[in-house]
Amino acid sequence: MKRTRQTPPDKHMRSIILPYSTYSRFRRRARLRADRAAPPFASGVLSLVTLPTALAVILGTLGIWQPAQQPTPVLLNWRTVSDDALLSVQTKRAVQIAEHAERYQLNRRLAEMIYDAAVREGLDPALAFGLVMVESSFRRFAVGPAGSVGYTQVKPSTAEWLDPSVTRDRLFETDTNLRIGFRYLRMLLDRFGEDTRLALLAYNRGPNRVGALLAMGRDPANGYAHRVLRSAGTEPASSSFARIGA
Length: 246
Known about the structure:
The chain has about 250 residues and is an all-alpha fold. It has ten helices and two strands; from the N terminus they run βααβαααααααα.
């Protein structure tokens, strides 16, 4: 006779504190179940779980778990956790990574790192890929005429401001460069009210310059935002500077 696991009554399902070790077991089991239930295309290019950070990205996307510096009890809402939900997010991640890898002719590893870094920093992955394409054409060791470095063409001074531990040499590390560049763009999105065009222009021209032009009622556009959004395949319907003087 097949044994079934009893679920707790509804009133006990709201939130449960699990020790970190128990949470780790849950995480491993969830990954195993997802692999067994994966569709036929889940091998090769579309393998669902290949990165150590994949499950953290999945649970973060679901709003279930936030990483901590030290192993601590993890708050899980069992109402929001299901094999179908985990598999759905994993499948979406795998499909989107494969699509971006094909679109930009990238190896899967780099596509995974860009996608996961974007999700961790709260960016739309499509926007992240478009940014890296325009900034460096996906060249890890690209150096700009103004001294900007790597995939996202971050200046060492900007990187040091965001994270004092990051040196110029470290900006040639893929994960560090993506983290710093995407974090900077995320901060600019916050500063300019989620206006993607203005945030991109600030990334390219500097936030103070863009702010000064807006204060004078001038359009700060220089074609950069259009190039990134065209590369990303996204075009917002409107932008704040489009309404200046209206």
